[in-house]
Specification:
By secondary structure, the protein is mainly alpha-helical. The chain contains four helices and three strands; from the N terminus they run βααβααβ.
Length: about 70
């Protein structure tokens, strides 16, 4: 499993071509682990409800790790 940093998620969500291709492959192969603190950061930066829904959808469908 790979824990992806906030900055990489941002590039993926903005469809940065290099990052998007790699992340899509890792997501399809279920190799990405979601961390509560990273998704919290992503949600803080969401500009509207649509972006919140997209981020929340990833959170709900990925294996999660709750960091203390």
């Amino acid at each position: 499993m790979i824990l992806v940093d906030t900055s990489v998620w941002i590039k993926f969500l903005k469809r940065d071509e290099k990052v998007f291709i790699i992340m899509r492959e890792k997501l399809e192969n279920k190799e990405i682990l979601a961390a509560e603190c990273i998704f919290g950061e992503l949600l803080q930066g969401a500009k509207n409800k649509r972006e919140q829904r997209i981020i929340t959808s990833f959170w709900e469908h990925l294996p999660a790790k709750y960091l203390l």
